[in-house]
Design brief:
heterodimer, A: 298 residues, mainly alpha, two-stranded antiparallel sheet, 12 helices, B: 235 residues, Rossmann fold, 6-stranded mixed sheet, 10 helices
Chain lengths: 298, 235
């Protein structure tokens, strides 16, 4: 029974952690592509999740709605970059203004979704069905396994994209030095539109997975997740996609296990353990577990 | 035959006009130097030519009017610009820097040229997998030049390659530029404060003062001119 309980808690932790990890991946992709933090990343995910729900409501199966919403998310992210961030001059010109604008977007998307779809939660099904797999006496839901599988595909896919493809090289070059990237023939704005689009698409997945776990969509569903995702990116290192994912899983696990096994930290303090961990790691490694410390000789 | 011709070029930043109706010419296969003190407008001149800032007037490259075109178009036409401060991608490895330099070209051409420039610059081969930011200034300058060459330019724009480098290394950089120019017949427009070295490899030169060309001539003429010697050669 105790082993079963432990296994159950590990998978509960991984389930929460995988969602933090996916949203953290979106944050890291934006950070790597444009050196910016997008505070609206979570609300953008909530918004596209509502779009997925609307598609579900119109008769599409949930999985198809999820995929379609991810594609729409890509478009929204790219448009957002082109219409808003470019007009503000990009990260080089105005990083603080853009961060404030993303906070404004946070509020706008939150209220916008409320106006369009109402503030009452809307019901959605599980993405991978209600099945369960027996493991060491614990019942692991197929939903968790599917989520972990998608996460693994995302990590490998983005690792290959950044390290092995021309687009990945362009994204990294634009982040490192936009002016030189343009001089080398890279279309900077187009490249960054793709980067923001990819981030919004990944974020959209985090949203539909959260909804699949809560069995509902509501306008505030991504807010705590965003905080955890920032913590995950900080823990793993803002420039490391793999770090963000491991950071997310570790925070999910630690929160679940500490809340489960340390009786003085009840569910009321569930935010605490993860953030204590982040703080402790940062004291030793300010760049995060997998982040690279900036090295530059004059 | 003229590869690059500027006529009545005005450019600057917002309301501040730095270049005041400037004209110059670079012929096929020629090394041309633009001498000028700090603030004369040397960097602005190169930024205007390569499309990084807007300009008024005419820039004719390879018989095509290119004023107003973007850097990413011009690099595809055969113009490469090594910006001031080298503009290397510090977080990328040496090899990745060179790959970015060949971005507008096919993978086969990039692989071929990568090998070639790593042969020409053996230091870069040694540091192939190291990040550019961790290299010395001289190595970074070599990398910046090699990166620009990866686009197989017909015109190379160089912004103060001597900046921040020790004299011996600067001499080495200029020697390489002269060699590559001789081997490839690639034209070079270099702006410099270090007039001695630049004139030693150039065929012709211009003197830029507060946004206008105030003197021009062959490298020998400029080296022999008393006023220029006093102002830029420190003798």
């Amino acid at each position: 029974m105790t082993v079963a309980l432990f296994v159950q808690r590990v998978f509960d932790g991984l389930q929460a952690g995988a969602i933090y990890a996916i949203l953290a991946l979106a944050i890291v992709v934006i950070f790597r592509a444009s050196g910016l933090l997008n505070f609206a990343q979570g609300e953008l995910a909530m918004f596209t999740t509502f779009i997925a729900w609307a598609l579900l409501d119109s008769g599409l199966p949930w999985w198809a709605a999820t995929i379609l919403a991810t594609v729409i998310g890509f478009g929204l992210g790219a448009i957002l970059y082109r219409l808003l961030i470019v007009r503000l001059g990009g990260a080089a010109a105005n990083p603080l203004a853009i961060v404030i604008v993303t906070i404004g977007l946070f509020l706008m998307l939150n209220d916008g979704a409320g106006i369009i779809w109402g503030s009452n939660p809307a019901k959605v099904p599980r993405l991978f069905g209600d099945g369960r797999v027996e493991l060491l006496g614990a019942g692991i839901s197929v939903q968790v396994l599917g989520l972990l599988g998608v996460l693994a595909v995302l990590v490998i896919g983005f690792g290959l994209l950044f390290q092995r493809t021309k687009l990945g090289l362009a994204l990294r070059a634009v982040t490192s030095n936009p002016e030189s990237a343009a001089l080398a023939g890279i279309k900077v704005v187009t490249t960054l539109m793709i980067g923001w689009g990819l981030a919004a698409a990944i974020g959209s997945l985090a949203g539909t997975f959260t909804a699949s776990q809560n069995l509902s969509v509501d306008t505030n569903m991504m807010q705590i997740t965003l905080i955890y995702a920032f913590a995950a990116a900080t823990l793993g290192g803002f420039d490391s996609p793999l770090g963000a994912v491991i950071g997310g899983l570790v925070i999910g696990l630690v929160s679940e296990l500490v809340v489960g096994y340390v009786s003085i930290i009840g569910p009321d303090l569930r935010l605490l353990p993860g953030f204590v961990l982040v703080l402790a790691v940062l004291l030793v490694r300010p760049q995060g577990l997998f982040g690279s410390a900036k090295v530059a000789r004059a | 035959m003229s590869l690059l011709t500027l006529a009545d070029v005005r450019a600057g930043y917002g309301p501040v006009e730095v270049l005041d109706g400037l004209g110059l010419r670079v012929d096929q296969g020629e090394i041309v130097v633009v001498l000028g003190a700090n603030g004369a407008g040397k960097t602005t001149l190169l930024r205007a030519i390569s499309g990084m800032i807007p300009l008024h007037g005419s820039v004719c490259f390879d018989d095509v009017e290119v004023a107003g075109r973007k850097p990413e178009e011009l690099v595809r036409m055969g113009m490469a610009h090594v910006p001031q401060g080298r503009g290397t991608f510090n977080d990328l490895t040496v090899e990745e820097n060179l790959q970015v330099g060949g971005f507008a070209r096919s993978a086969d051409e990039v692989a071929e040229d990568l090998d070639r420039w790593l042969d020409v610059f053996p230091r870069l081969r040694e540091r192939r997998d190291q990040t550019a930011g961790s290299m010395s200034g001289g190595e970074q300058q070599m990398l910046a030049i090699a990166r620009a060459l990866m686009s197989r330019p017909r015109l190379l724009l160089l912004d103060e390659p001597s900046l921040g480098l020790a004299p011996l290394i600067t001499a080495d950089v200029f020697e390489r530029i002269a060699q590559i120019n001789a081997e490839l017949g690639m034209s070079v427009l270099v702006v410099e404060q270090n007039a001695n070295l630049a004139l030693s490899i150039a065929q012709r030169g211009y003197v830029l003062e507060t946004g206008s060309i105030v003197a021009s001539g062959s490298a020998e003429e400029l080296s022999a001119d008393d006023a220029i010697r006093r102002a830029y050669l420190g003798v």
